[in-house]
Specification:
It is built from 4 helices and 6 strands; from the N terminus they run H-H-E-E-E-H-E-E-E-H. The chain has a single domain, classed as GAF domain (Beta-Lactamase, 2-Layer Sandwich). With 159 residues, it is of the alpha+beta class. The protein has a 6-stranded antiparallel sheet with strand order 3-2-1-6-5-4, with helices on both faces.
Length: 159
């Protein structure tokens, strides 16, 4: 069961609380769609200054839109293309301060100015990505990256 909580305005403590909330939400559930849906909703509720949060899952060599919160999005993204596809091909987080400076950026939402994409890796295989967009440039910092990587690490144990 999810219990809404008040955050502390200490980013590090708030992220630690977020990780505990995620574990409580998914610990008894094995369905990937249910877990990713709740994870997207939790991040949407927690993060400020974002306009899209969700998942793309790798299917037959391309990323396919999964559970998300926000405006309708690009349905398919080729591996190696855009920020999401690059996160898959490089197998590492992409933290982009200004998406308009990223070669080959795919503009699913013209309002997006910055983006962070974290690959989801299960049994040494990339199975998808967590993608978060913001209407503000330079929205995501190293603390966001650290805890969003921990967030996906928790998810990986349940997928």
């Amino acid at each position: 069961m999810f219990n809404s909580v008040s955050y502390t305005n200490s980013p590090e403590k708030d992220y630690q609380l977020l990780l505990k909330q995620l574990e409580a939400l998914i610990e008894d559930e094995k369905d990937i769609v249910a877990n990713l849906s709740n994870a997207a909703a939790l991040l949407n509720q927690f993060l400020s200054d974002i306009n899209w949060v969700g998942f793309y899952l790798l299917k037959e060599g391309e990323l396919v839109l999964g559970p998300f919160q926000g405006l309708p999005a690009c349905v398919r993204i080729a591996v190696g293309k855009g920020v999401c596809g690059t996160a898959v091909s490089e197998r590492k987080t992409q933290r982009i301060a200004d998406v308009h400076q990223f070669p080959g950026h795919i503009a699913c939402d013209a309002a997006s100015q910055s983006e962070i994409v974290v690959p989801i890796i299960v049994n040494e295989e990339v199975i998808g990505v967590l993608d978060i967009d913001s209407p503000n440039k330079d929205r995501f910092d190293s603390l966001d990256q650290k805890y969003l990587e921990e967030f996906t690490g928790i998810l990986e144990g349940y997928l």
